[in-house]
Amino acid sequence: MYTFSNKLKIASFILMAVGLLGIGAGFLSAPGTIEEAKAIVASHSDGHGDAHGAETTHHDVHGEEVGAHGEHDASHDEHLLHQLQNKPWAALYVAAFFFMMISLGVLAFYAIQRAAQAGWSPLLFRVMEGITSYLVPGGIIVFVILVLSVLHMNHLFVWMDADVVAHDHLLQGKKGFLNPTFFLIRAAIFLAGWILYREYSRKLSLKQDESNDDSNFKLNFRISAAFLVFYLISESMMSWDWIMSVDPHWFSTLFGWYVFASMFVSGITVIAMVTIYLKSKGHLTDVNDSHIHDLAKFMFGISVFWTYLWFSQFMLIWYSDIPEEVTYYVTRIQDYKLPFFGMIAMNFVFPLLLLMNSDFKRVNWFVIMAGVVILAGHYLDIFNMIMPSTVGDQWFIGIPEIGAVLFFAGLFIFWVFRALSKAPLQPKRNPFIEESRHFHY
């Protein structure tokens, strides 16, 4: 039985406390008036002001290029104010979504293992169940942010502004789907479905340990197979709603798969890192190097899959050169060079070089090092999806962004390791437990 150490609890509380201070500093430093926004921009010596006109041309959705010719200075100034006010909100949203998607990626991997009746992974089921427990607080926090967006506490989703929609024919055509009420109903359905499956599957998993037959295991198999159908649909729609709709003029038919690849590899990476940590503390003694090797193999393979989807999306849009589509990448390449190209190196080049060798996949510290790079890279992936459409070229990875990451990292560590301490780390009566115990690659 794993015991949640006081040192780890204290560390998680410190992370949350420091993170809260950073988040609070971000909100306190946000401008309240146009004059304050202008003063903040004027104080920057990095030339942001020169690029801002192009950014406003793309992201203002009033149907006119306010700020492109200086004809609507008032609208331009208001747009700049909204961008700077969005910075702490966007930092909070990116971090909240990132840690929530880790647990959701693990849930998908867990359901696949259940539905496939995999023989190698049952020793890792408790680790997966512990990580997916974060879906409850993480999902609720994301939902609260979405509700606050609907209540106009921020400007993350421009289509929620009735005045914007009134002047935008494209958004008027999407009102049947992109409207606040239906948006929140969908979000509630997605979260309820994910959390209900997680809680019921966990319950069956624990009951199987005390059972005299395999009925709970078989039921878990059936609901996992059914859940995967719901997951594939809900995850795609979630990615359209929660990420793609921050830039409602742009769309990609690959986007659901692209977000899935990001959350899937991030989730598998965290499974590997938590497993290695627990083994270092004397737990999961039956987990061997072959289990770690297979997790690292998934980290490598899904990183290549993510790169395939990224390149497919980018190459087709670049080649077709349709203005409505190309602007998505133009703004990111112009204003987000470092996080945009850095993300590609961290999510593809580093995993390729670090994990291609089969022997390296069995070296724990090497897998941890690769995992840190992968997680940082996929945080930047979410950062690149959200920030250009919400804060424009006024981005900076500073106190609010770091504070949000620290807070949710602390909450994630606390919630996951508390869940791991609630039940034995090794299932007793899983039909494939002996196969998993003797697994060798």
Describe the structure.
- By secondary structure, this protein is mostly helical.
- It contains 17 helices and no strands.
- α4 runs antiparallel to α5.
- It is globular, with a radius of gyration of 23 Å.
- Mean pLDDT is 88; it is low at 45-71.
* Class of secondary structure makeup: mainly alpha
Task: Report, as a whole number of angstroms, the end-to-end distance.
Answer: 27 Å
- Total strands: 0
Beta-strand level of the residues, as a percent range?
Answer: under 5%
Nearest-angstrom radius of gyration? Answer: 23 Å
Helix-strand blueprint:
Elements: H1 6-29, H2 34-43, H3 48-59, H4 73-116, H5 125-132, H6 135-150, H7 162-166, H8 169-173, H9 180-210, H10 215-242, H11 255-280, H12 289-320, H13 323-335, H14 337-355, H15 364-390, H16 399-420, H17 433-437
Helix pairs in contact: 1-16, 2-4, 4-5, 4-6, 4-10, 4-11, 4-15, 4-16, 5-16, 6-9, 9-10, 10-11, 11-12, 11-15, 12-14, 12-15, 14-15
Structure summarized in a few sentences:
With 441 residues, the protein is mostly helical. The protein is built from 17 helices and no strands.
Describe this protein with a few key phrases.
17 helices, single chain, mainly alpha, 441 residues
